[in-house]
Specification:
13 helices; Alpha-Beta Plaits; nine-stranded mixed sheet; Aminopeptidase; alpha+beta; homodimer; 425 residues; four-stranded antiparallel sheet
Chain lengths: 425, 425
């Protein structure tokens, strides 16, 4: 047996014998509510873990002119005090390829708490599943990365290339945490992001961006509602119109990587708000949502198509000729990204998946954006997305992750680190 | 010429010669933003005016156990500090019928200020129109009442019956101001409410009440929106379903008083709010609105019909069998009311309308509720609604009133006071 195989066997054994440590870490991370602006407590746990692993730790609060004015900067906020990014570096001995392991620490809001069986920040473990907001998206994946690093560290494995672990903020709001890491100088020969792909391998990922649509009505007394124009009813027409655009845009997608994805680039209307008095006809409705961007189009092309489509509302309802809706692109935006399906990092990941799982992995396109678009396009770091957890649970009530998958992913990633960075025997 | 006619001629002259005083008062009242909770400044103007007219003035902040627990008490609030009710009494010499002149001082919010040509609290006068929130609903009508009283006072006209002027809060939220006045003991042989009827005479009025509907969805990541259930899309089905109920309910209305009203008892969806993240499928939407109640049904009958109709949503979309919507009746409620079309107060009002305008007035049913339902049903005071201003402008941006109509209504009401209460010659 070669050294490489011996080391992989040792890692396999180590992960089998250190399950409690991994589960404990994930419970602690899930308990630390890290919604936007509240990331500090969770990052503190990450920092302590990285120190325990003997890594060089870099902690910073993002900001500054270059960053805030960068063309790829998007965020609903410009002040990040109390929301640190964290990087841990395992320096290689030289001569190997470097690898970024990137995961985001921020989670989306828990939503209607009543729809959760266990409290969203309980971290409760039942039947091999760990429950809580962020368990799947993506603290489970982050723990896979940390477990891989812990195994390497505990077994005193030396690598030729650098491994750069990143725990970033703001992925759910467009990736300014990863952008900040790129501007701080962190680049590598490849990157893995363990977002919840359900152990599928995603070389390609949808981009997306947030929109806000303003729909105007005309107020009137509710008792004579026929004298006004309800912005709520007009918003219903707008939403229906968006459904049609979604259909047209998705019919154009022919990449076989999207074969099993029902809607490759969805248009999601996420929030609605309008009217200010029950007895008045509402004169205004605001819609906010997420617009999927194909890897085969630019952000600007996608914006134009949406804007022109909204102008065509006047053909659906002449009212919109008089009162056209307006659109803003705000807050988050995820750049689409893709690497070749036969890129070396893909080959290593596929081979190690087969070694650990004993099956051929599914290679698909991601149904959502990740920070991989930024890493690939802005950071010149070819990125593949692969991780435990299923999208069906991300952003849902009762989000959970199968603990077993966290360890499987840790093993596959640890093996891939060795193959990619190279063992210093 | 009899004394009655002489006096009426004097009133006509007085109103012609005191236009500036009336316009000035209305401008001042409109400038005093009297949205819910902010009524004090406008009431101060009313109090000063009543003192100047030599009336007995009663000012109080409503409250107390009996009031708050009264079956007809409805309000989004239970604390009314800083929101006084005002009554001014012109005591009669005895032997005549008493008359309540009731108007509300509260106005609905201005809504989207950008849709206003002049600022909503400008009180700007252009081409005989006075602009501002509340100009039509119903500070214009209130000024008609005060002008009628001012004419009587200036001309030293003595009446046999009492005249009770009321400037109440909370009409736009269900009439607790008028309820409080009733419980304080203010009742009369008839009442006039100068809501904006466009100078039509309304012996019958729609009731209405506010509802809040909770629609549940199931959250999911927006990138895989097909894995969730959008509460916004389900809310669209609910709104469409409500439209059908509105149609069914209105087809039943056969009273000729409603002949020219397009939708006698509308269902207005006034506000919508749901979702909390652009990239998530919204798991909850809240709708608030106003449900018109026919004078021929009870509040409870109307509630039952709505509640059963919402249960039937499951036949429209099986999803609602699993996740039924829930409904609350909250905040405001206006009791429907009606008096006979040949009631004496109707006869006096119709006769004086003809005298002043020279035409037969239009007698119709009100397309909205007023405090008249409470006065008639709870206060045992038969109430007719008649005033300047048009419903089309109430609750609208660019609300205005034609100043001329304010004076015409003042004259008709002053004449009716004389006929109803009786001149003490």
């Amino acid at each position: 047996m070669d050294v490489q195989s011996t080391v992989k066997n040792q890692i396999h054994e180590w992960l089998k014998n250190n399950r409690d440590q991994g589960v404990h870490l994930l419970v602690e991370l899930v308990k630390a509510d890290s919604t936007q602006g509240n990331e500090k407590a969770a990052q503190k746990i990450v920092i302590e873990t990285l120190h325990d692993l003997g890594l060089d730790v870099d902690v910073w609060e993002q900001g500054g002119e270059e960053f805030l004015n960068h063309p790829y900067f998007v965020s609903p906020r410009t002040e990040f005090k109390g929301s640190p990014n964290v990087v841990g570096i395992k320096k290689g001995t030289g001569g190997g390829r470097s690898l970024i392991l990137n995961g985001h620490i921020d989670v989306v809001p828990a939503g209607d708490v009543e729809q959760w069986e266990h409290h969203p920040y309980s971290g409760k473990v039942v039947d091999g599943k760990l429950y809580g907001r962020g368990a799947t998206d993506m603290k489970g994946g982050n723990v896979s990365l940390l477990l891989a690093l812990a195994a390497l560290q505990s077994l005193s494995i030396k690598l030729k290339g650098d491994v750069i672990f990143q725990s970033v903020i703001e992925e759910e709001s467009g990736g300014s945490g990863t952008l900040s890491a790129i501007l701080r100088g962190y680049k590598a020969d490849a990157a893995i992001i363990p977002e919840p792909t359900n152990m599928k391998i995603f070389p390609k990922q949808q981009g997306s961006m947030w929109f806000r649509i303003h729909v105007k009505g005309r107020s009137a007394h509710g008792g004579t509602r026929y004298e006004g124009v309800s912005a709520i009813e007009k918003a219903m027409i707008v939403i229906k119109h968006l459904r049609k655009l979604e259909q047209i845009r998705n019919e154009r997608i022919s990449d076989p990587l999207y074969e099993k994805v029902p809607i490759p680039i969805p248009i999601n209307v996420g929030t609605i708000e309008g009217g200010n008095w029950p007895s008045s006809v509402p004169d205004y409705v605001k819609l906010e949502g997420r617009f999927g961007v194909s890897p085969d189009e630019t952000i600007d092309e996608a914006k134009s198509e949406m804007e022109n489509w909204l102008l065509a509302l006047k053909d659906v309802d002449p009212y919109f000729a008089e009162q056209p809706v307006s659109i803003e692109w705000f807050g988050a935006r995820w750049v689409p990204g893709a690497i070749e399906t036969d890129h070396d990092i893909m080959k290593d990941l596929i081979a190690n998946y087969q070694k650990v799982i004993g099956e051929v992995p599914i290679v698909e396109a991601a149904p959502w954006g990740t920070d991989g678009g930024l890493l690939t396009k802005v950071g010149a770091t070819p990125t593949v997305v692969f991780g435990p957890g299923v999208t069906e649970k991300a952003h849902h009530p009762n989000e959970y992750i199968e603990i077993e998958k966290v360890f499987e992913a840790a093993e596959i990633i640890a093996f891939t680190i060795i193959d990619w960075c190279g063992l210093d025997e």
